[in-house]
Amino acid sequence: MVDDATLHAKLKTFFGYDAFKSDQERIIRHLVGGGNAFVLMPTGGGKSLCYQLPALVMDGTAIVISPLIALMKNQVDAIRGFEAGEPGIAHFLNSSLSRAQILEVQEDLLRGVTKLLYVAPESLTKEENIALLKEIKISFYAVDEAHCISEWGHDFRPEYRKIRSIIDQIQPAPLIALTATATPKVQSDILKNLRIQDAQVFKSSFNRPNLYYEVRDKVDTEKDIIRFIRQNPGKSGIIYCLSRKKVEEMAQMLAINGIKALPYHAGLDAKTRADNQDMFLTEEIDVIVATIAFGMGIDKPDVRFVIHYDIPKSIEGYYQETGRAGRDGQEGQCITYYSYKDIQKLEKFMQGKPVAEQEIGKQLLQETVAYAESSQCRRKLLLNYFGEDYPEENCGACDNCLHPKKRYDGREELSLVIELIESLPERFKLEHLAAVLAGDTNAMVKSYKHDELPLFGAGKDHPARFWEAVMHQGLILHYLEKDIENYGLISATDKGLEFYLDPHEVMLVEDRTFSEGVDDEDDDDSGPAGVAGGGGGDQILLAMLKDLRRDVAKKLHLQPWIIFGDPALEDMTILYPLSLEELKKCQGVGEGKAQKFGGPFVDLIAKYVEENEIERPDDFVVKSVGSESNNKVYIIQSIDRKMDLEDIASAKGMDMSALLSEIERIVSTGTRININYYIEQELDPDVVDEIYTWFKEEATSDSLQEALEALQGDYEELEIRLVRIKFLCEVAN
Known about the structure:
The chain is of the alpha/beta class. It is built from 34 helices and 18 strands.
């Protein structure tokens, strides 16, 4: 038996902590003592330590079953970092390994040096792996993300149902199941399927007090997201989208608007996915854009915001994904965009699935709709979903509590709901009851002849959505209950029946209303829409800006076009930027150029706006991803990695001239890139100096045609174009 002193010493040695959090010590003692355990602990609560520390102090190897390949690598790297002398102390076994790597894992396991082995459930079913695990001493099994066992969980995986039978084939050992999200129904499924009904249950509160929850109407979403990120500079964040296509589009759109972002989804090759994840972890980029369907498994404690561009298909999914924010206990903002169109899209995806699966999926979706449209405290709604009461009336950290809607005494409405429920010989779903009260004659209502009931249309002064809101609040107040085993049939509780016999004041709130939203197919992605320029601005201001540009250029001994190009000045006459931050939104103005030259221009514009009482546009301009910019992110990343330009061109199926055209287009928008590594390797330094001097002292614009006409007799076109790019980036951008 491991004593107190040893446990605390190992906690400090391996993990650097002086004390355990929450139930960690009780869980670890129970497991070390040979007992089965079921751990319900929210993201950021320290679940991983509950199996990592026991594995390090017990005899044998702990088998950790997890579906998240990214998380396996992350945790194995972390454990090896704690115990630098023996890299074999932790391994993972999954489809990403080569044959040689698998042999290394097998050798370390048989030598007895591996204390933690992470296994994907698919790998666990392979005969050779079962045979290998029979050869070693297993300290215990840990089933992480255990909600994957249940069809009612947000991430059901059929292979998880086989775990118990495979464990029985290998050898007996204690079992610990862990999850960050599980409703009472899912908890029951997990215990039953793993056959650990005797397990001690350790349940932490699902409340994450440091997280702020908000649901926004899905209107001008891209613009709103960019504004939000710019208001939170340098902070790490995750954006979730429904499809891989949207992930790619969003990552590109953020990148061309000056935000360091990369995509992350199952359609990327393993190396790109791993590289993108590592860049997020090492803070080379600020934002990861990911599919909702693909488990991130990123253990990053300082994620400051999680944005759902598309709403998840269940509250459990939402809770787990938002839970990746603020795992260090510090600030975490959770912003979700909602329109009913997204719900209809998710319902469409269910078509063709088995009827039982569709029923489950629709019920989970309806819970999501109720959460999004509710005006109640979001914390109260979330905790209630997981079977936990939140006693406070106002959490002070959600949009509904900070901007409360008007409340009303709902005793009559709630009484009417209970009267209808009790008048029916059978139980029905919430949506059906709401339709009866609102007087909606849909097919279901007619088939049960409920349009002939005395209470049909008794609440026709309000739409069905209103009655759904009343019932959702009745559930939270425990006047009503939902039978999760039977697809969410509603009944009145004893408390509800007492209320019906003796009604008293019950303060309810009306739900929020949202716009319908638009289909992605209707989004205008045809080109750089929204990028201002090309005339139409304030011609008086334009003349003043050109005069200022000439004066600044003269003072700095530079050509005027180097300061700001004409498209940039035209943008300024439309947007009237009053700060360097706003100036950067103008076409062809990057960070460097704004800082270097922007001050006098912003001052002039501010004075002009004040003197002429100019009404500025309400919003900034978002640069869109045009079809010609599809390769932009790849090219910038490849140049950052110092890839040869020939290799970049080859990877994208271009010739060298086409690649240079793409780079020139990127540079023309104000983006600064560094191709010096390539120029130094390919061009004579004297040639570079001579062409560079011509651009600085003789060129009258940044026109490539002008440069070729002036220089092509003496220099190759490739040399001129490369040095022009270098000059534009170093001086003009």
